[in-house]
Design brief:
Layout (H helix, E strand, L loop, with lengths): L12 H9 L9 E3 L11 E6 L2 E5 L11 E5 L4 E5 L11 E4 L5 E4 L2 E2 L3 E2 L2 E5 L7 E4 L8 E4 L5 E4 L11 E5 L4 E4 L12 E4 L5 E4 L11 E4 L4 E4 L12 E4 L5 E4 L2 E2 L2 E2 L3 E5 L4 E4 L12 E4 L5 E4 L11 E5 L4 E4 L12 E5 L3 E5 L11 E5 L10
Antiparallel strand pairs: 1-32, 2-3, 3-4, 4-5, 6-7, 7-10, 8-9, 10-11, 12-13, 13-14, 14-15, 16-17, 17-18, 18-19, 20-21, 21-24, 22-23, 24-25, 26-27, 27-28, 28-29, 30-31, 31-32
């Protein structure tokens, strides 16, 4: 499983808390309990379908890929298993919402260290998954919705190595077509972020512990060009979040010396990266980054180099600072999902701790914006 460490429930005080307060214990005021998933899973996907419904698909147990799926209903606060005829077990795949409310799942890893070519399409009304094959098998790739309604797939691992190939999915034709040419750099565990002008920033990843050079995909020509300036630090397993002002926050990840506590901002106007001076409270990779309604970014969990993390922090783009949360999640998590809900809430689901894979979920409620950075 490509060097990923496996997962863990917190012990000690948490175990006592759980035994006494079963469903009501939480790490603090920012976090609260909700329903439990129908299966433990990490390396899964969580796709927001509408204002309060999230589709959670596949993923991995400690040893096996899953072919199951479920819905989370925010109004009910519970998970409901979904029949999945036609869905092959997989983890480390990617998912995106389709027009009309369906879901596209691409690639993934399955038994025998096999990368999948299969894409699965869930109709808006549910039912059996339809199948559409990609041109190349891949996992740990990216899937990005483009402004013209198509979807860009980049890179990944074909079961043997990182790859350069890109392809485009057409929802109308329900088929994939190769891009005009592959990326300059073979990448896996990278990010691909849609920019305001319709281009896509492809950053990090690579064969080792991350590439420094980023590429910009042009939707008109279906090819990439190199960004004018490289990342300050090579990184993979990071996050990339489009900020409200149009810049992209590249946060954390795995660097040459281990997990990173640094972040940088990509400016599409200058096509360059700027290292943010302030560091995180804890280095992290395999974490999540979620844009909050007020423009701040929530970073949660991940792997810190010695253990999985329960803590998080909020990035404030106005002051370019990171503030540790006043409380922690109930469990350490990495390879989890963190999906925005109405009202500034975030659903945190599944993931791996240091000894187990989790079925638990919790809700984060963003605290009010405080004083400026450094106060």
């Amino acid at each position: 499983m490509t060097g990923r460490k496996r997962g863990i429930v917190r012990n000690g005080a948490l175990a006592l808390c759980l035994s006494i307060l079963a469903a009501g214990c939480s790490g603090g005021d920012d976090f609260s309990g909700t329903g439990t998933m129908t299966a433990p899973r990490h390396g899964h996907t969580a796709t927001l379908l509408d204002a309060g419904r999230i589709f959670i698909a596949a993923g991995l147990t400690k040893t096996d890929p899953l072919g199951s799926a479920e819905f989370y209903g925010a109004a009910e606060g519970r998970f409901m298993a979904l029949p999945t005829p036609g869905l092959r077990p997989r983890g480390w795949h990617r998912a995106a919402r389709l027009p009309g409310g369906g879901v596209l799942l691409t690639g993934g890893w399955t038994h025998g260290n096999i990368a999948l070519r299969e894409a699965a399409i869930l109709p808006p009304s549910g039912g059996a998954f339809a199948r559409a094959d990609m041109n190349a098998a891949r996992f740990d790739h990216t899937l990005t919705a483009l402004k013209d309604g198509s979807y860009l797939v980049t890179g990944g691992n074909d079961g043997k190595r990182a790859i350069r190939g890109m392809e485009i999915f057409s929802p109308h034709e329900k088929s994939f077509a190769p891009a005009a040419r592959p990326m300059f750099i073979a990448r896996q565990q990278h990010t691909a972020t849609l920019l305001p002008d319709g281009s896509v920033l492809i950053a990090g990843g690579g064969r080792g512990k991350g590439a420094r050079y980023a590429e910009i995909y042009d939707a008109a020509s279906r090819r990439t060009g190199l960004a004018r300036k490289a990342l300050s630090t090579p990184r993979s397993r990071h996050t990339a979040t489009l900020l409200q002002g149009g810049k992209v926050l590249i946060a954390g990840g795995l660097g040459p010396a281990g997990p990173l506590a640094t972040a940088e901002l990509y400016d599409p106007v200058s096509s360059s990266f700027e290292l943010i001076k302030e560091k995180f409270s804890a280095a992290r990779q395999q974490h999540t980054a979620t844009l909050l309604p007020d423009g701040r970014v929530l970073l949660l969990g991940g792997w810190g180099g010695e253990k999985s993390l329960a803590g998080g922090e909020i990035f404030d783009p106005e002051g370019r600072c990171f503030r540790p949360l006043g409380s922690s999640m109930r469990y350490e998590r990495r390879l989890h999902t963190a999906t925005p809900l109405p009202g500034g809430r975030v659903l945190i689901a599944g993931g791996a701790s240091d000894i187990d894979v989790l079925a638990s979920a919790e809700i984060f409620k963003a605290p009010p914006r405080g004083e400026g950075c450094g106060k």
